[in-house]
Amino acid sequence: MNTVSGLKATGYNFAYLDEQTKRMIRRAILKAIAIPGYQVPFASREMPMPYGWGTGGVQVTASILGKADVLKVIDQGSDDTTNAVSIRKFFEKTAGVRTTTHTGEATIVQTRHRIPERPLRADQILVYQVPIPEPLRYLEPRETETRKMHGLRDYGLMHVKLYEDIARHGHIATTYAYPVEVAGRYVMDPSPIPKFDNPKMDMSPALQLFGAGREKRIYAVPPYTHVRSLDFEDHPFEVQRFSRPCALCGAEDAYLDEILLDDRGQRMFACSDTDYCEERRASGHTGLQGDAA
Amino acid sequence: MSAKPLLDVTGLTKFYGQRLGCEDVSFDLFEGDVLAVVGESGSGKSTLLGLLAGELEPTAGHIDYRQQNDETVELGSLDEGARRALMRTEWGFVRQDPREGLRMAVTAGGNVGERLMAKGDRHYGQIRQRAGDWLEKVEIEAQRIDETPRSFSGGMRQRLQIARNLVTHPRLVLMDEPTSGLDVSVQARLLDLIRGLVTDLGLAVVIVTHDLAVARILSHRIMVMRRGRVIEQGLTDQVLDDPADAYTQLLVASVLAA
Amino acid sequence: MSKKSVLTFVDVGKAFTLHLQGSADLPVVSGVTFDLHEGECVALGGPSGIGKSSLLKMAYGNYRCSEGHILFHAEAAIVDIPHASPHAMLALRRKNIGYVSQFLRVIPRVPTLQIVEAAGVEGGLDESAAKNRARDLLSRLNVPDRLWSLPPATFSGGEQQRVNIARGLCAERRLLLLDEPTASLDAANGAVVVDIVKDMKRRGTAVLGIFHDDAVRTSLVDRVIDMRRYAGAGTSEASAA
User: Does this model's pTM top 0.80?
Assistant: First the structure.
């Protein structure tokens, strides 16, 4: 029924992909949910956008989107970068769904490189755009071998990467795409989110889906699943701390971006999650440069 | 003497289609035994090593290994996971080309520490400490622990590969021509080092070599292979000093002072 | 006096087959039959090339036998050396049978004292006993103690030879095979070796050896086996040994 109305509205099938393809992707998603953290191969389609622009996430979103859904798209926490805007427009046009910038209003959030600051609910789904799904690739380029390592839970190599970090930098210097172990079994690349966001994945009420278009892989973290960031006993996992609160909203618990203000190197630190920052300011919170913004 | 051998190989045979890799190879190996497998290229010695390492599937025959817990397992009956676990704890494999046996983009410390991390060690300081101890044992200066093997000489790379294999105190180590391609003086030092470690740790070793001098220095026993078959085996000094088979006599005669 | 047998040769024969020379058979010895007892020193006699060294090497498992048996009477069982598994033979060499020739198989980079000591430990001495024995042997054989912590690779030929003897004699052995161990040693050191071997004999070690030195022969040897009796069927000059 969606199909028919979608076709009528725009000339596209609902959410662009044909129903057979969506069914294929949904099957992959179901398998991914059944085996948390396991990379399920799927027949990734050519999308009307280049690889690297979220083709994996878009295909996942297209396959789970219903007419009643409210979609939010963020890129590094922001709703209004080119990538976020064009994906939002894509679904407005091909599916006619309502879109929003408010995390709280969205039923599906497609994201590149961030998890929203506002805690997600059980009726929400977070769709990640993933460039490289294989966390072991950095040290073992052979896909046949990394698959075996996952299959056999042969994860010594993952710690070699962290060991190398400490050996070279004195601490675990991996700050994004920080590897996690899902449900005590598979080691997974959480996509290039800052490790600041890693703890949000653990026991999240929301379903988390990961789509890698170029690499043709889908994986998932079901709701309320343990997600543990790998570490050493004497170098435990730690998130980034910021030495000051957000310059605009005064938030102390949010991930901050450094923003250059002028040509003389004036800069400020402000929430990377623009919606979170705006909502805080709307409810009266303010930072040191709150007026200036 | 009455104890069961560590490794008991019976009738091991490998055909690549119609082509013979090796046929009906049988031997046993006890703790502390060093067995040299000698022969020219194409003799089947590399096939044999591949079979022992579980990298090739035998056409016939079996390999029984007595584990640390004294239980004997047939290698072919192990699933891939169990086999790999065995390979990185109780077994080692020193390859001819250190670039195949090492991770060239990973530091010396990471290379040595990998097996520790693979078996579950999660304390960075302790892993690093043990890696450092092992670098010392193989005569690599401790301050080079954070360098990658790319900056190492051939001999150092080979020594690093040995440390990487021995850090988990394996009981059986397979070595594939570990000294070939090295300068003579570097070779001598490496042989010395291997012999010292083998004695100190009571390792059982199967070393494949075409170099009878290496066999003479390192091994207690020799197995001579030709065209896929074992043509002579026995104590190293016996086979080299009193070779019975025509081919072995030729081999020995063509080497200066093996 | 009926002492226990340590080594029994039964119809032992040896021929080399030289495949590289048209499979020519070179007979060395045949029909060797004799007994060696605890505490006894037997010398192999006869001209050079008669197969004395070959027979010692056969008793050590270094050369194969073409026929017959060489029975070693171990504490628990009798081992037929030519038919023993390599594993069993290695164990015999470690624990029971010592072989000393005049040539040191140099072990580079291991300190002298440690080489001698290790031989003792391998032969069943406990560590402190091995250490004491090693020190005692080295000093009796006039290896200066400043050399003990150095590897023998750089020593003079005579010093290397004496280290080798100390190593060969450190452990208690049931059987000692001596292939002219004192050749090219000076008289004083030769006498020391004789003393040490005599001590071991007294403790029950059986000795089978080749001795060209008359002084050594008179003071050590109880019995001489004339190897000419066992010359291989063929010319007695044909031995490759």
Answer: yes
